[in-house]
Amino acid sequence: MAHVRCAVRPRSLRPAGVRPERDRATHDQPCREVAALLDELELTRCAVVGNSLGGRVALELVLACPELVRALVLVGTVLPGDGERSAALTAFDDAEHGALADGELERAVDLNVEMWLADGTAGAVREKVRRMQRRAFELQLPWGDELNDEHLIPDLPTRLAEVVVPTFVVVGDEDVEDVRRYGQRLVSSIAGAELAVVAGAAHVPSLERPEAFDAAVLPFLERVFA
Fold it and tell me: Residue 133: which of 27, 3, 8 has the closest Cα?
């Protein structure tokens, strides 16, 4: 089985050396460029695994290019605009924006680590996520206000019933309540979708509790591709 790993970055999700089609960074580019990458690699009927915003990209991909997707694994998937934000998420956003506005990059990184990882997460994992988040900010900040929240499928939350491929939803039991609510929404809206709750994990269960994550996800993939 071939594996292709993509990382959602502010300037879009693309292979090194490939320039975006336009200068302004938008969130529709990740979906378009994942599709372009799969076409280039001549891969179809893939299992697409997306975490956080990557889950939204995976959902957009299956709706825009259904021939590319055989199954979905949606991990800690966020659905911007679907319901009101919790007080905890609003407070986090305000604190993060304030730290970045004040030029306090490390404080913004620390806020993300504390928000998105479970309390019992190993120190090595925390440091790895800290490095990842710092790098994400380093890529994002030079764009300033030019970052745009356009999506390829802006009405995605209302079109979840159109997803017809086998879908497996994973949430951590310590993730923010918004993400856990999104998980329930996905399961109730996508026919046949299954849900796994990973104990002791928050927003990135594949890093926080990898054994439990694999134990939940791999049997699903084996069934789909049997």
Answer: 8
Token pair in block for residue 168: 């497996």
Distances from the Cα of 213 to the Cαs of 98, 205, 209, 217, 218, in angstroms?
34, 6, 6, 6, 8
Contact (Cβ atoms closer than 8 angstroms) between residue 29 and residue 21 = yes
CATH superfamily of 28-84+150-224: Alpha/Beta hydrolase fold, catalytic domain (3.40.50.1820)
DSSP state at residue 74: E
pTM of this structure: 0.86
Instruction: Report pLDDT digits (tens) over 46-78.
Output: 999 999 999 999 999 999 999 999 999 999 998
Question: Could you tell me where in the chain the CATH 3.40.50.1820 domains are found?
Answer: 28-84+150-224
